[in-house]
Design a protein that fits this description.
Keywords: Membrane, Transmembrane, Transmembrane helix. The protein is mainly alpha-helical and about 130 residues long. It contains five helices and no strands.
Length: about 130
């Protein structure tokens, strides 16, 4: 849990969330609004780095939960939200949403994979 409070991770979450919110205004997609941006970004922040560790470190016992967490962040919370808010948008956009969301999920996993401070990262990179 301490890893989630690292300033550089919180900063990158804020930048990403800002881009998602800006994108919701710019692209005007029927399934892209501020609440779903916050919901999906929040769940992704909580699980993407951990999911990457499960794969890289071959923690196979955690694989089922990792797959569930990935599905929830990429499609599950999206489908539930739009089912409640606007089922027509869900039916129209779901097939287009999951590939983009899955790509973003794993990109975030790569960004948030490192456990440590930025000072620690510079030291590791310098070795």
């Amino acid at each position: 849990m301490n890893e989630l409070l690292r300033p550089w991770k919180v900063l990158t979450l804020g930048i990403g969330l800002g881009l998602l919110i800006a994108g919701s205004y710019y692209y005007e997609a029927p399934d892209w609004d501020i609440p779903i941006s916050i919901i999906m970004a929040g769940f992704t922040y909580l699980t993407a780095g951990w999911s990457m560790h499960v794969i890289v470190e071959r923690r196979w016992k955690a694989l089922p939960f990792m797959l569930f967490a990935t599905w929830w962040c990429v499609d599950g919370c999206y489908a539930l939200y739009w089912h409640l808010v606007n089922p027509e948008a869900l039916a129209f956009m779901r097939e287009a949403n999951w590939p983009a969301s899955l790509s973003l999920y794993w990109m975030c996993g790569l960004v948030w994979y490192f456990n440590g401070s930025m000072k620690d990262a510079r030291r590791v990179i310098g070795q």
